[in-house]
Design brief:
Blueprint lengths: L3 H6 L3 E6 L5 H10 L3 E4 L1 H9 L5 E2 H4 L14 H8 L5 H4 L10 E7 L12 H5 L5 H11 L5 E3 L5 H8 L6 H33 L1
Parallel strand pairs: 1-2, 1-4, 2-3, 4-5
Helix pairs in contact: 2-9, 8-10
């Protein structure tokens, strides 16, 4: 018989959108065992499919199928899943149909911007600025009381244990959210410094 936690998670999604995909299959397996459905951006989708895991690509759930666009993870069909975790969501917004399942876990790490920077090529650096990833992390942090947000491979194993636990893990989710907030802070701080240095080098 499935645990109560697995029953609660049966309709939730775990979203994977990672630049560094090392080890995400282990976390994804734990998500499946805990009753999550897996969705993933294109690269993560191919990686997980190659690991023989049942996963759906964001393109498959997108209303923009067949359309070329840059950031698939910015769509309504993705981010509405975050908002569904907010208290009284359906009553507040008069939602009567549950067409978009809630997201209960996000695994996302950002483009390593430092690897693509150049002292004299600010424009080239900006081409590598991650847009979809920070949006996913920000929305997950906003709803951390209901969402696990992972940015670091070293947290995959511990998170897997929490997924199978029936204990209240709000404190652990807050811990993960705080780490994600640090990742965002460092990412944008680096970008800010690069802007300043670029401006100095231009004059």
């Amino acid at each position: 018989m499935k645990s109560m936690r697995k029953q609660e998670k049966s309709r939730e999604r775990a979203l994977f959108s990672c630049y560094d995909k090392t080890g995400i299959e282990t976390l994804a397996e734990s998500c499946l065992e805990s009753g999550f459905d897996l969705i993933a951006s294109s690269g993560s989708y191919r990686y997980l499919r190659n690991k023989n895991l049942e996963v759906v690509s964001i393109e498959e759930i997108s209303p923009l199928q067949g359309t070329e666009y840059l950031s698939k993870t910015l769509q309504h069909c993705v981010h509405e899943g975050f908002f569904r975790q907010e208290p009284d969501y359906e009553a507040r917004f008069k939602i009567t149909q549950k067409s978009i399942p809630p997201i209960g876990l996000v695994c996302s790490n950002l483009y390593p911007l430092k690897d693509f920077t150049s002292d004299d090529a600010l424009a080239r650096t900006l081409e590598w600025v991650d847009v979809g990833g920070p949006a996913l992390l920000t929305n997950a942090i906003r709803n951390y009381q209901s969402i696990f947000v992972l940015t670091c491979q070293t947290d995959y194993e511990e998170c897997s244990a929490h997924l199978s636990s029936t204990d209240d893990d709000k404190r652990y989710r807050k811990y993960l959210a705080s780490k994600a907030a640090v990742v965002l802070h460092e990412y944008y701080s680096f970008l800010n410094r690069h802007f300043i240095e670029g401006e100095i080098n231009e004059f």
